[in-house]
Amino acid sequence: MNAPRYNVYSEIAQLPTNGIHDICVAIGVFDAVHLGHQAIIRELISRARAYQATPVVITFDPLPPTIVNPELGVRRLLTLEHRYKLLSELGVEAIVCLPFTAEFAQRSPDEFCMDLFECPGLAVKALCVGRRWRFGAGASGDIEFLSRFIQQRQKSVEIVAIPELYRDHERISTTRIRNSIARGDFVCAKKLLGREYSLWGPVSKGRGIAGNVLHYPTANLDVSGMVVPPAGIYAGKACLQGKSLPGIIYLGSSPTFNQNESDPILEIHLFDFSQQIYGQYIEVFFLKFIREERKFPSAAMLIRQIEQDIFEAKRYHQQQGDSAHGLS
To answer: Which residues of 138-175 are buried (b: 16+ CB within 10 A; e: fewer)?
Structure first.
C-alpha cells in the first residue's frame, strides 16, 4: 500500500511537544483547496519564510455545517486525506485537524484564541485567513476580534486578511464548486479549483460483479459522503504511482443488479491493465460524459452496452492523443 504520511495533529498543544515552536498559521476548513484557499496558503508560506517559522494549517473535521446545520445535507468535496495531500503539496509542513463537535461549536472566540495564542511553547508569528472568516459560537469572532485580543494580550502577531477571489463576476466558493460538480460542469469546477476535478483515495474491494459477472474488472473508490457528478458513464483516467492510465468510469447505484445503494458506487475500468492494486492510492479524473445510467433487463444486455461504452471511451482517448496507451 502506497499510503502517504503527513504531519497531522489533533490538538494545537501537540505542536510544541513535537518540536514545532515558531509558527505562521492559516485557519479554515479548506474543503476544496480552491483558488481562494490557495491564495491564503501562498501568503502563509511567504510569511513563514520571512519569519523563519513553520507553516501550519488549522482545519476541522467533520465539516462544520454537518454539525451546525445537519438539515442542509452538506457533502464533502475532498476526503480528509485528500485535503492533507493538497495542503502539503502547497508547502504546508504541519496540520492541526480539530474535531468539530457540537461542544466545540459552542466554544467562544476567546477560548479558541487562548488555545492558539497562549499555548505554552508556541509562538504565533502571523495568522492568515480569508477576509470574511468567522469563528467561535454563532460565528461571533472575526478579524477585528482577533486584533483586539492580540492587542489586549500584547502579542506581536501579524494578521493577514486575504481578499476573496472572483471568477466570471462571482465569488469563488466551496458551495459554488459543489454545485458545479453536482451538475457535471467540470469546466466551471476547473476554473474555480485551479486544477482538474478529481477523486483520490485507496482502491477498495468492490462487489465482484464487474469482474466475475461482466468480465470487465474495475478499481473502486469509496465516495460515501462525497459530492459527485451525475450518475452515468464517463471517459476517464486514473493516476497511479505517477502514471496516467486511460479508462472508463461508472458512477451510479447499479440498478440492473437491484443494488440501490444509498451512496453511489464509483468504478473505473482501466484499459489494457491487469495489475492487482487493492489498497493502492489512485486519483480518478472525469473527462467526458458518455451516457446516463439506466437499468437493463439482463446482464447480457448490459455487457453489450458496456462494449459500446468502451468503444466510445477509447475513441475519445484517441481523439485526445492517448493512442500511446494502447488504445488503437
So the answer is: eeebbbebbeebbeeeeeebeebbbeebeeeeeebbbe
